[in-house]
Amino acid sequence: MGSSTVALGPGTAVAVGQALLDNLGRVVCGTDGALTAAVVAALAGGHLLIEDVPGVGKTVLARALARSLGAGLSRIQGHPDLLPSDVTGVSVYSPTRESWELRPGPVFAHVVLADELNRTPPRTQAALLESMEEHQVTVDGTSWPLPRPHMVIATQNPLSQRGTFPLVESQLDRFAMATSLGYPDRDTEVRLVRREGGRAALPELPAVTDVAGWREARAATATVTVAAPVAAYAVELCRATRDAPGVRLGASPRAAIWLVRAAQAHAVVAGRGFVSPGDVQAVADGCLTHRLVCEDADGSEVAARVVAELLGRVPAPRP
Predict the structure, then answer these.
(1) Number of domain units in the chain
(2) Which of 19, 22, 130, 279 has the CB geometry, 3.0–4.6 Å to 266, for a possible disulfide?
(3) Residue 158: partners with Cβ closer than 8 Å, 6 or more residues away
(4) What one-character-per-residue DSSP string does 20-49 give?
(5) Which of the two residues, 164 and 41, has the higher pLDDT score?
(6) Looking at the structure, do residues 49 and 178 belong to the same domain, yes or no?
(7) Both 49 and 188 in a single domain?
(8) Are 173 and 43 in contact (CB under 8 A)?
């Protein structure tokens, strides 16, 4: 589906969103929540964080999404020796031109897979901060624009694993959505070992759009109607996290913005041109939980519980 076959408007995004979901389901089986989160992030124009134990398909999902979008993918493999210049690129002097030229790093791609990001040291993790927020990279004092659209898909192992460096709050806040795959059920696992789906299906996975079509779908998603009471509901959910028991740092205003954008994308996936309170509720866990800093050592469980409790306590607007 190229840009010439779709028209601007919510219908553009609906068509692309449904095609993406169906296509990803051919490779990643039995994890509908993770597939929806990936499509929501792509349509909303945000970045995606996939956190789970090794071997459950995090990288496969990232590669499948890039192939489905018809976008170029570059891969950054996280390891403790990775340098910031290995991400952004370096300036190289050209004797023939008598000037410095940028040798671009892997961040200069439409889709960047930062695999096992939390195995890289904080200095290297920080090399992604500017690109994820400002869609540019500064090397030796010169800023270079990144391709549009630009999406970072980062994977990480749980922080209890050896050899990991926790992502800082400012980096976590730059991910529109976070999700996990979990272990597959028995039947799905049997299919995987029989090479039905998973990595074995990637080479045959077709693109359902191209970069221009993806760009149009993102623009169309941004036009989905958000009524004032629904926007206020999203803001109230975020504000409530800041005073929730056990939470040291609640959701930021940036989180509220992305909660609404993600809700627009979820409405698109549902085939609607307007956002309902149910859309906000559906994306709240994936959009907010990873952003909360809790006092408890096992903060992820506390954060998920806080978001669930707030969804039951903060009154939603009536239709």
Answers:
(1) 2
(2) 279
(3) 51, 52, 53
(4) HHHHHHTTS-S-HHHHHHHHHHHHHT-EEE
(5) 41
(6) yes
(7) yes
(8) no
